[in-house]
Design a protein that fits this description.
globular, Rossmann fold, 8 helices, 26% helix, alpha/beta, three-stranded antiparallel beta sheet, 267 residues, 12 strands, nine-stranded mixed beta sheet
Length: 267
Amino acid sequence: MAEPAPGLVDLTIADGLTVDRWLGGRLALVQPKRGHRVGTDAALLAAAAGTPGGRIVDVGAGVGAVGLALARKSARAFAELIEIDPDLARLADMNVARNGLQARARVLRLDVLKPHERREAGLPDDAADRVVTNPPFFERGTIRVSADPRRARAHVFSPTDAGATLANWIRACLAVLASGGRFVMIHRPDALSAILAAIENRLGALALLPVHPSAGARAHRLIVSGVKGSKAPLRITAPLILHGADGRLTAEADAIHRGDASIDWGD
């Protein structure tokens, strides 16, 4: 569930799409004009992933914003963008080419919950140096589903697959992560117990960063980071506040939206 991101330039093109400059103009993204669009959640996830080298897997990549942002950050990175929706995967392919990242990114249209599809696409288990993900926030039956099919798919797990749950999504992400690799996810704070249960003992150095829309408001997002195989203890970091009393982005949040700052996990 992304919030509209400041700084996006809406240039209408054919077929209900726009071309938007994102992260301070670092990326040009083709995306649907209506429905689920790249926003604050993607900017936060990209900042939380740092500047990784090696093999990056962006699970539920949509139009490719986060994975491409990470490929743009580091010449040592190769990003694989996993997306099940064929239309979004097509847009992600367009965005790879539009940003000149064909040599350092590819789109995999598959169901991450199906190991055989991952293997057939050349993505074996224990292969990724970093996995980033912004999963659907809800399971079917827990909220009223949007009439827009793309928005519904972005927000709610598919009702056609009994295995499509947050727990199985996290386990699939951790399956492709190599030992010593980092997992980074953005989700809802009230899903914390389910997140920890799914992670079990697969990650250490777990860090939880609560994100608040303003000072004094309840956290509305939670960023989770952890290292596969680490034995370091869990910790809760200082919160990130997005807006000041004047309603404008704080200096830290503004730098994240412009792509000028990363979130430091302190390890």
